[in-house]
Fold these 2 entries.
Entry 1:
Amino acid sequence: MAIDQSLRDRLTNSVAAGFPGQVSFTQDLVRMPSTRGNEHTVQDYMARALRSRGMDVDVFAMDDEAIARHPGGSRISSTHSRAPIVVGIHRPRKETGRSLILQGHVDVVPEGPADMWATPPYDPVIRDGWMHGRGAGDMKAGVASAVFALDALRRIGLQPAATVYMQSVVEEESTGNGALMTHLRGYRADAALIAEPGNEGLTRANLGVLWFQLEVRGIPVHVANMGTGANAIDAAYRVVGALRKLEEELNAETASHPLFGSHLHPINLNIGKIEGGDWASSVPAWCRIDCRIACLPETSAAEAARRIEACVTDFARSDSFLANNPPRVEWNGFFAEGYHLEPGSEAERTLTEAHRSVIGQPLETRLVTAYLDARVYALYDRIPVLNYGCTAENYHGFDERVNLASVQRTTAVIAQFIADWCGVEPV
Amino acid sequence: MAIDQSLRDRLTNSVAAGFPGQVSFTQDLVRMPSTRGNEHTVQDYMARALRSRGMDVDVFAMDDEAIARHPGGSRISSTHSRAPIVVGIHRPRKETGRSLILQGHVDVVPEGPADMWATPPYDPVIRDGWMHGRGAGDMKAGVASAVFALDALRRIGLQPAATVYMQSVVEEESTGNGALMTHLRGYRADAALIAEPGNEGLTRANLGVLWFQLEVRGIPVHVANMGTGANAIDAAYRVVGALRKLEEELNAETASHPLFGSHLHPINLNIGKIEGGDWASSVPAWCRIDCRIACLPETSAAEAARRIEACVTDFARSDSFLANNPPRVEWNGFFAEGYHLEPGSEAERTLTEAHRSVIGQPLETRLVTAYLDARVYALYDRIPVLNYGCTAENYHGFDERVNLASVQRTTAVIAQFIADWCGVEPV
């Protein structure tokens, strides 16, 4: 049911007509500092935005028990978000097309020291065609793209001729439990599209990701008697050394992987956060390190976790201090497997055509070494999931920014994809 | 003016008679969690205790400018204490003896994770003859000793026949500025005694101590692109490696030192506290490490500091990331030189006799590789300073405790020392 060029052009023009409003909507999202646990106001904003567009809106909480029972559930602690999930529901007059999930996350990672930003992190300043701000790229511009792609249809008197679920989720940055919760709530469709920033490319596969916290406790003493005490910070860093060796082993093993074998160093271990000790003149009694590591799509999270635990245990046995004070490994976030988008799906073909029509280039595919919510739809809904979006830079860094021309282009691609995939009917 | 055995015996008995009250007083001190900045209530308690004993009491604030101008002034920041210094002043009816400063500090180091204590850190539980609690040993038992040594004289109708300044100070655990402030306020005497826990030994010399904070900033990115970012935590730990090499160099240089040459490893570098990064999946942008290092008595703090700064600068130049992102070294506490108690003083001889009389053993001397307030009196007042006190364990650690039999013995020694050094007169 390929759409004709005239509809394509009308949609592209309609996206352009709505773009000032889209930029302003994106700025509203960026102004809300929706770090983990602080997504309440932005989710209320999304619920109002979807409701004002005539959608039914379902606002629901995480079901911790259901998440804990599911193999794709990541570990939950009090540090995780209690903000709700918001789903806007579009029903056509008559269901003739293929249904679709449009998904985006509104949580953002911490902004870090404010003085390392050129402009304040939650001030969506536009300079030279880029909008700046924490979350501007990852992925508030993408969330706005999906909403305004639907608006572009409506502006020319059309709407999808199939059910569309617009899912605004949280917890993408530390567990992926928000996306999983939409699955557990029962939402299903024929395909899913997630407008994560991706340099206008389609994600072919991504890695699994695990989070863990390593804790070492030591026997503290006055530093004058340092020889008789054990420094928990130094001991923890010795464990990091052992984990770095495991990281190299794991990367060596990826060489034969059909997709990630071409990647120089797909498995990254990140020492993301460290805290230890209380006083410069006391030998530190404790140290906690927050780590993140990836695993290949075919590796289960449990298998990857066993490997890490074995590495820590084996190293500890060989260390005179750690043998008596074994480090603790706690899984405190992502416990998620990677996925692979099988080539050849109708959904991919439909996106490829829309992309070629708007961008004038073939759609390139990419491998992603980070966590993506797409895994939920690929692994558990078992549907084609298109992770596709605009160009952004420095996400998780300072001066994060998103390219507005790219946002407009990819919004037009998404509008054409929706029209083609779902079909259209008059409003 | 050696005192006779009968007075010695009466004083020892008088200390025993007052000991239940002394234990209770010490427990009161331990119950107050007087970590840095939180010494206000314990200083009020001390002021009331000294006033109730008929002393004039001088309560005064730190003079930051005067401290900054003095070569023995340590670096002050907003993290340091604003609690006052308390000095109780005893004047005799007629000044016939030698004047004395009795000094003690009431600040304590942080207690660390409460669950690593057998009993709560500020609950002065007595088990098997030891009183437990943060600060019980370092040095609230010592502060109480000095007060109750004077009480022991009064109980038998005597008082020192010379001026005695009882100084209760703060900031011994991070700058030594409290002790320096008593010097700047103008207090002087013929000798000083500080009842720091010392296993019933006299300190012959101690090391200088410096505190600094090392800060590294990195370029953060999403961990998926880890190769293009620099991990500030890893980079900071590379600097620690360079500082560890300097530590070994400095220890090698101590071999020829007349006093510390016999010590296996006098110069300890402690990595006491670390903090860095905000998120497991973001390459960390910052890391701060609080360090403490010692230097030999003859080395000035400025000289030791230059050596450390040069080490950090030289290493940074050789590191591809740090060369462009030079680490910052900030002196944020102790900037203090060591001291040496010259053998042969009258004060030492007087203490030796009191010690032999009570303990029945020769007075042993010891080298201390930690900071001691004694340096102020030795270096700037240029008087004999006796750092002498009871047996305590695990100070700066968990389950810190002080041996009560040892407290009673050393209190008797101090009482005899006061009577002998200052002379006595009827109350």
Entry 2:
Amino acid sequence: MDDGVLDRAFAALADPTRRDIVARLCDGDATVNEVAAPYAMSLQAVSKHLAVLERAGLVRRTSVGRQRRCSVETATLDALTTWLDRHRRAVESRYRSLDLLLARTGSEQPDQPTDPARRPS
Amino acid sequence: MDDGVLDRAFAALADPTRRDIVARLCDGDATVNEVAAPYAMSLQAVSKHLAVLERAGLVRRTSVGRQRRCSVETATLDALTTWLDRHRRAVESRYRSLDLLLARTGSEQPDQPTDPARRPS
């Protein structure tokens, strides 16, 4: 996955309104007016948020007649999930190895196996 | 989950160096010097990235003797995964419902069931 895609997608989701818009579009497509309806902000402000999400590849806007319909781009959400899952699994694998080490050695410091310092008692 | 936690965590991961640091710490704890070693940037620059990650709750720095040891905070990674999974599941559930609808009705427009406009032929 191109770093730029992840950069833009993580940055776009760092705003609660944009996360809320993505969450609502996950429940179903909507027109720009429908997306804007719940917010106490101008249609222009909501359109700016949608433009950020579109540039991030998280939302697609298509023209249907005179309306612009918004839908979520699941491929980019999947790219974020893949990144998080891969590294989360690395941590879990490490914890499992430490559990095994603990089971084998009966060590009382399984979480810092290479650390010579002792915990203060 | 507090919006601020997600705001800071998504924003922190919008930078490829910070994602790389998190990825490496998922493989194992490291000192600040070890974290900085692969990068063509000053120790101070790496420390700034670590400070952003620490404020975002993604990395914990603890003093061990004269060294500062960095480790990943899995709870915040889990919060991001939970947010993404919840909404990804909503999309999947919607697609399943549309598949069922398609199977029942034989409709040729299963992805826009509420849209009266026809696709241009």
